[in-house]
Amino acid sequence: MTSAGRGEHEEDGRRYVSLAGLRMRGWAGSMVHRLLGPPDRLSVNPRVRAAPPVRLYRVERVEAAERSRELRPGRTALPEKLDALHNRSVDDRRVARSPSTASGAALIRRVTAPALFPPPTYSHASVVEAGTRLAFLAGSVPLDGEGRLVGEGDPVRQAEQVIANLEEQLRVIGSDLTHVLSTDVYVVSNETSALSAVWEVVEASGLSTGPHSSTLIGVACLGYSGQLVEITATAAVPEEAR
User: Fold this and answer.
1) Which residue in 121, 173, 111, 150 sits closest to 230, CA to CA?
2) In terms of Cα–Cα distance, which of 77, 81, 62 is closest to 19?
3) Are strands 213-219 and 180-188 parallel, antiparallel or unpaired?
4) Digit-coded pLDDT (tens) for 167-221
5) What three-state secondary structure class fits 189?
6) From CA 80, how far away is CA 64, in angstroms rounded?
7) What CA–CA distance (Å, rounded) separates 232 from 183?
8) pLDDT at position 87, please?
9) Taking each helix axis from N to C terminus, what angle separates 192-204 and 155-172, rounded to the nearest 10 degrees?
10) Closest to 160 measured CA to CA, from 203, 122, 120, 119
11) pTM of the prediction?
12) pLDDT the model gives residue 70
């Protein structure tokens, strides 16, 4: 696999765009599944066998979708809740974060250990100053306001609902996704492809703005019948909400 710039790759004489490349063009994770469906090719890095395969989409399909929806590369294309991911390169998110100095904001420092393998859109640690108010949230689940399961059999749709519900949990305590310090992401599956698909939704959300610290876990089952995804979180509460 050879790089062609802007997250594009060439394999077997064809041009492909990776998920990182789609983010650079302004795509959110939920848009990828909705507009493109399954990837055209999976590419494995032979030097890092433990890493999940890279999902590649043919450039022609991506450009056709952008034309049909009048999308513009470099901008978030759909006004969805999951479109809060900034258009930064992956490498830019692999460095230690400076403390937040916004007025009234909790002081949060995101740290990536330079001696460890760079994590994909999360940090190894989140550090907060003494005196910061913390909130420990119960697991966010894929139920609507009436208690109905959303996205039966579809882990991606369930992940989108879980993120939306997590946003609401944070809103009522005066916080938001950008103040989340850490999460545990549970997926009912023993297939890395299913875990990767859910992680793409997490990547496309405001959780990656920090980025927060996270653990992705495959499990045998969760609490509700048909439930495939759950996320627990710890968040800082900004001073103005106290």
Assistant:
1) 150
2) 62
3) parallel
4) 999 999 999 999 999 999 999 999 988 999 999 899 888 888 878 999 999 999 9
5) coil
6) 21
7) 5
8) 35
9) 40
10) 203
11) 0.59
12) 59
Q: Are 50 and 35 in contact (CB under 8 A)?
A: no
Asked whether the bond before 155 is cis by omega within 30 degrees of 0, the reply is no
Regarding beta strands 125-128 and 108-111, do their DSSP bridges make them parallel or antiparallel, or are they unpaired? antiparallel
Q: Are 82 and 201 in contact (CB under 8 A)?
A: yes
Bridging pattern class, strands 14-18 and 54-58: antiparallel
199 φ, ψ to 5°? -65, -30
DSSP at 175 = -
- Running DSSP on this structure, what letter comes out for residue 191? -
Read out DSSP for 204-231?
A: HSGGGTTTPEEEEEEES--SSTT--EEE
> Using CA atoms, how far apart are residues 194 and 64, in angstroms rounded to an integer?
26
Give the torsion sign (CA, 191, 195, 200, 203).
negative
| C-beta of residue 111 within 8 angstroms of C-beta of residue 97 | yes
pLDDT higher than 90, residue 105:
no
CA distance 206 to 215: 16
